Amino acid sequence: MFNILEIKFMKAYIIETIRKIAPFDRFASAIYSPMLNFGNLTKEELVISDLKVRFIKSVSEIDFRESFLLIPDYVFVTAGLIKKFIFISKNAPDIIKRLAVLKSTLTDYYTALMDYESDTIGDESVLKFDIFYVPANSSIMDYKDSEQLISYLRRSSQPIKITQNFGIRLRRLSNIKGRPFYEEFPITDEIVGHQRFWLHSLLLNILYISTFKERIANGYFTTRFINKPKTVNNNRVINSVIGSNVWLHPTSVVENSVLCDNVKVGAKTVIKDAVIMRDTNIGDSNIINLSLFGENVNTLSNSVFCCSVIAPSSTISNLGFYYSFLGKGSFVATAVIILWEGINSTIRISVDGEELDTSRYFLGSAIGDGSVLGARAIINPGIAIPKNSIIVLRPEEGVMKIPHMSETEQYVWENATLSRFEDIFPEYDKNNFF
Predict the structure, then answer these.
(1) d(Cα 147, Cα 143) in Å, to the nearest integer?
(2) pTM of the model
């Protein structure tokens, strides 16, 4: 075991890059996670590792006089791996090191289409990620552009092999060809990954759920999410962390989950291995499994959620929402069908007109921020719906989508949206109508 004082005063820099994640049209670090976004979540994990952390926009902000850690903002990593990496790096020769993890069932779960590099150390396969230990007074100060610097570090670094600590839990997902199908779901607090597509944001969020529970129970992250958290074990609440002013219907069941402040849970609802953020209302007869709900989310009755992420301020009522990511401020009606199973083949996603194989048999969709999905809409597996989209078969459902309106403009209802009067009727003078 190493002395934490060895890394306590070491600096870590999270450097800004230009990587955006569709369909959310946000930088990777700004994608929603339990800590609002992955950038802040990575920072908190580095702070837990006793590092001094700074977000930077330019290489010129780095102090090269002492050793440091450099992490691009599209990378997510937890404290366990960082501590192991720094300990080994400090006791290795004084050269640039790069974090490498042993290829395993865990990495197979979430690295499809991820832009890691493969390598071999001895007779073991490893995956190399963009987390670098840079010794003091290195020559990289000559690089002014962040992308050039990261490229140089990839070429010049020595991989440091880390074995991730994880276990496997079988999770029943569906019935295929008449029999139940079980997926091997990893349980771990040692995660590292590059966000390239929305499916990485989804899977990293899902992997982090159990870690977030432990962080809350141990006193981290409590300021924003939970006032005076307590671990509860009784007939209805099993091994779960509960915040203040949480209301549970007497017929509801909560197991191995986190319910933050002001959460309300309706009758006959079952919540397992999930995180429900503050001010969220869960309806009656819901089933929530391995999912993350943001702040101010509302669900209606008879909804089922599995392995999904619901961003803040959304409303969703769905008979089956599996392996999907719902953007902030969106609305999904009950009868929307989001397909998520590849029966005879793995699921593909489309990126800039190119079809890419995710190597996964289970994957739903990503729905961009501010979108509306109305009754009887059918979404194929792997589809990414752009933000502010409306997909409805009944035009009147578009009333759920109301844009920002100027007080000086006049609006009319046209094709399920509110539009400026002069855009729809350019031949008329609006002053004669209003």
Answers:
(1) 9
(2) 0.86
